[in-house]
Design a protein that fits this description.
This protein has ten helices and ten strands. With 253 residues, it is α+β, with helices and mostly antiparallel strands. It has a domain of 120 residues: Lambda Exonuclease, Chain A (Alpha-Beta Complex), CATH 3.90.320. The protein has a five-stranded mixed sheet. The protein has a three-stranded mixed sheet with strand order 3-6-5. A two-stranded antiparallel sheet has the order 1-2. Helix 9 packs across helix 10. The termini are far apart.
């Protein structure tokens, strides 16, 4: 089925319910990459929330867990801080899987509208929830008379589908949990409609509702604030010492 036609660099959905402005906002333009530079992003939030082994089983209400940044978190902070402080940016990796997802997410949203799964769709781009952190929400929509944000995934393998839909409930161990929590913060909603298409098709899909978790969203905000303070200390301290000092000085509520 050819629902997507390419005209130069523009995409048009045949029989579309999305207008050209909505389609444009869903595409990853140079402007989109630019506004994300030097910021913590929803798609990488699981990296920022990585913990060390000592606190792996602690709840996120524990201060010790908040300040126990794992190696993946430190590496991510280094990259974001490097962009912010030097103006030098990493090359954007654009794999075939990413290209497939980016193109077909537009078609999938259109199909959700056609199938009357959602209504009142409003396209969104990168939205800030904190001065140096934001998320790229796939849009706002109405699902069963409730407004919520929308996150769609177009998978290319059953491994990818398993990773996202095997468990009936999305919790903090899920690969997209932290991304959706950040997206709900950016969109100002309490729920997210999470739609995952079957591999290499948008004709079949599964969906579920993910609820906002105030505990985990608070943890996201705290980590963003600590990481920001650490980056500010780079001029006078080593990278590792900067993070240690920022953790020690952080004022918990």
């Amino acid at each position: 089925m050819k629902e997507l036609q390419e005209f130069g660099s523009e995409f048009k959905i045949v029989g579309q319910l999305l207008d050209s402005e909505q389609i444009s906002s869903l595409q990853r333009t140079e402007e989109w990459y630019t506004i994300r530079r030097g910021k913590f992003t929803g798609s990488n939030m699981k990296l920022l929330m990585g913990c060390g082994r000592a606190s792996s089983k602690m709840p996120w209400t524990t201060n010790d867990k908040i300040v126990d940044f794992g190696a993946t978190a430190e590496k991510y902070i280094y990259g974001v801080g490097g962009e912010r402080t030097t103006g030098c940016y990493s090359m954007q990796i654009d794999s075939k899987q990413m290209q497939y997802g980016r193109m077909n997410e537009i078609i999938l949203i259109n199909k959700l509208l056609k199938d009357n799964i959602i209504s009142n769709y409003e396209a969104k781009s990168f939205e800030l929830f904190y001065k140096n952190a934001g998320a790229s929400v796939d849009g706002l929509c109405v699902f069963k008379n409730e407004e919520m944000c929308l996150e769609v995934k177009c998978t290319v393998s059953w491994d990818g589908h398993y990773e996202r839909m095997y468990e009936e409930q999305v919790d903090q161990t899920h690969c997209d949990f932290w991304q959706m929590q950040a997206e709900m913060m950016a969109a100002g909603t309490d729920k997210c409609l999470y739609v995952v298409a079957y591999p290499m098709t948008i004709e079949k899909y599964k969906y579920q509702i993910v609820n906002a978790s105030k505990i985990h969203q608070k943890a996201i905000m705290q980590r963003c604030q600590i990481a920001d303070e650490a980056i500010k200390l780079w001029n006078t301290h080593s990278y590792t010492d900067s993070l240690k000092i920022a953790c020690q000085n952080f004022k918990f509520d």
